[in-house]
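Fig. S4 source data, part A: sequence.
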Amino acid sequence: METFEILAKKSRRKRLWKTVAISTFVSLVILGLLGKGLIELASKNGQNLQKQYEIMSEIAYPNVDYDSLYYTQTSYFSGTLRSDRFKDLNGVRVVYPAYEGNYSLTGSYKNPTSEGTYYTKSGTYTRELRQKYPVFYNVNAKVTKDSNSIPKELASVKEMPDQLVEVAVTFDRPYTYKEIQQMIPNNLKINWYWIGSQSKDGENGMVLSSDPKTTYGAGAELLAMDPTTSSKEGQKTFLDYLKEVDKTFFPTVNNYNMYNDIETYLKKFGQLDIREAENRDQLTFSGIILTGKAENFSQLEGKEWIAASSIGASVSNQPYYKLDKE
């Protein structure tokens, strides 16, 4: 017959195991919830990275588009967002360095190797593909007008026979969207519009827009959207994207905060509904990206409204290409 002491020990042992079991279960639940929360936090950072990339792709990266956007998970709490990108040269797609951004529990950041450019005597090039990058010139910058920093490469295009060429054209002053349509020959394609820079001091601002992620403007297709098309009703406009950008996302270059260019543009045009053609025609731009056959660019030589010109990507024209502009 069991004594009272033996029964008490068994009871205490049962309570101990019960407590251990409950504690273990609660700990596992807490750990599970904590893990789920951390995974959701990392996922949210990844989603924020994607949102900012999608917005910036609409207002920056001159004549650069993408046809894929996907995640690669590197751990439960981190991953990489990648986008395969290309340029449009008169309807022909040319590869452009892919975008890569990393995210984790602590936030998100871009992979600098996918965005970088470098400079040589012959121009600016992308680091990954060594592809020539077209730059715009800031006519507001306080530099000598005969400075070697002003690119004037338009005359060189005629020496590129049988090629499709991308050229950044900087205007002598801002022109309206409507004026630009009348200035450009029909056999050249307008791919992208640059809003310009408001910085004036060359040492405290931008002289050349040599960084694709800090060169702001709009793609031609986004500006030319037709509100009467049912599939585009409610679609965001260029100005909508400008209003959605995160101010903290913009860097300071030579003591000049690049968001100033966006803010100034919105103060001037932010209230317009550019789905209406008459409102869109009022938008002003300081430069454009043109693409087309090399021989067609000769029409622009000597134009007084061209302050600077910079050659970008190029590719041999093949007989099987279906070009947008002949």
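Fig. S4 source data, part B ends here. Helices lie at 4-59, 177-183, 220-223, 238-244, 259-269, 277-280.
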